[in-house]
Amino acid sequence: MPWSETKPMDQKTQFIADYLRQTLDMTELCQLYGISRKTGYKWIERYVEHGPQGLEDQSRRPDHHPNQTASEIVEALIQGRQRHPTWGAKKLLAIVEKKHPEWSLPGRSTVCEILSRHGLVAKKRRRRIIGHPGKPMAQMLAPNDIWCADFKGQFKTGDGIYCYPLTVTDGYSRYLLGCQGLHTTSALEAKPVFTRLFKEYGLPQRIRSDNGVPFATTTLARLSTLSAWWVRLGILPDLIEPGKPQQNGRHERMHRTLKAETTRPPAANRRTQQRKFNRFQKEFNEERPHEALDMATPASIYVPSRREMPDRLPPLEYPDRFEVRYVSGNGGIRWNKGWVNVSSTCIGEYVGLEEIDDGIWNVYFGPLKLGRLLERHMRIEDEYGRLKRKG
Predict the structure, then answer these.
(1) Which residues have CB under 8 Å from 327's CB, separation 6+?
(2) Which candidate, 82, 16, 4, 72, places its Cα nearest to that of 47?
(3) CA-CA distance, 150 to 168, in Å (whole number)?
(4) For 120, which of 112, 115, 167, 391 could close a Cys bridge (C-beta 3.0–4.6 Å)?
(5) Confidence band, pLDDT 50/70/90 cuts, at residue 40
């Protein structure tokens, strides 16, 4: 029977004390402590040689391993790595072999382990895994329920400059609201296009897009600068699942026709290419019959939204039961005398917190739920990731 799990050092000390008193013989003493005579003599020998320190548990690691890399080889590999911090195991083995051809060098994996053990390998930063709520469930039952937005694949015009067509359609009527060739996919260029469309056609309830720039990022709720602006306007982002463009199939089908009729071949420059886009937009909306609309045209179905774009962004409003916090320049909020990181896309905005349980708060950016604040850990858990794990 081994030593008891509770404070074995105290029992060993007591065993030595009883042995020194010589009140019991060795057999009775070992039976009292539930150990073998061999174990008893081992601890007595250690106590005699090393004193009380000898009773402490010792490492069972062998002093020498027959396959252990020689110290001079390890030192040569370390020196080589220190002189050339970017060189890997293969290169280090090559230079050591040239200098010492008589050495029996280890394999590549062993060299990698040696470098890692001596802190010469930079640890990779783990990427934050952002969840996703799954397939979008909002339905297109009327015009402006859902707009669909995407960038049709970039291509070069005749002058060798890339063109990035930003396309926006009404999901219900298939009406092509806009097709604008841009220099990049940045929010800085995309925002004026949406501003023009909102002023001309009003505001939709949702905008469906993929998870790429500028529509989404890898922060909480995949909120981006552009989609945060949509939320301020009362428009909810509606993201498809990554790698599943069929969930925005109506828009992708329009892209197929757009590509065939306007980019093969491309125009000489972006200005003339935009004229091709404009002609296609007029024909697609007003002349081309659409089978899904019983051969009607999108223009005969679509009507502008009654929600006009405001001249100034309305403030985010929260119910009285919510706690409201300002997101500072570092992307965090003050909570219980501490800082909790939220998102850099919310800097300068207000978020609302609703307590749903003791120490558990739902965090909202307007009507959009960002995640949950867990007071016990003082962090915000990604709501999309939680839904993904749950579902």
Answers:
(1) 333, 342, 343, 346, 347, 348, 349, 350, 351
(2) 16
(3) 7
(4) 115
(5) confident
The tally of domains found in the chain comes to: 4
Residue 228's alpha-carbon distances to 28, 158, 184, 344, in angstroms, are 78, 36, 20, 11
Q: From CA 24, how far away is CA 36, in angstroms rounded? A: 15
Contact indicator for 327, 342 with CB cutoff of 8 Å: yes
8 Å CB contact between 277 and 179: yes
Within-domain flag for 244: yes
Question: Would you say the pTM of this structure is higher than 0.85?
Answer: no
Q: Are strands 155-156 and 368-374 parallel, antiparallel or unpaired?
A: unpaired
Is there a single domain that holds both residue 271 and residue 173? yes
Average pLDDT in the 230-249 region?
A: 94
Residue 303 is encoded by which pair of tokens? 């009507």
pLDDT at residue 5, rounded to an integer: 45
Give me 330's structure tokens.
Answer: 């570092």
Residue 229 and residue 372 in one domain: no
- The set of residues, in sequence order, having a beta carbon less than 8 Å from that of 369 and lying 6+ positions away, is 221, 362, 363, 383
pLDDT for 383 equals 60
Give the total residue count for the chain: 391
Query: What is the C-alpha to C-alpha distance for residues 257 and 370, in angstroms, rounded to an integer?
Result: 37
Give the structural domain span for 263.
146-301
pLDDT at 107 over 70: yes
Evaluated on CA atoms 9, 14, 15, 19, the torsion sign reads: positive
Last residue of a domain, one of 97, 117, 137: 117
pLDDT digits (tens, 9 = 90+) for 155-190: 999 999 999 999 999 999 999 999 999 999 999 999
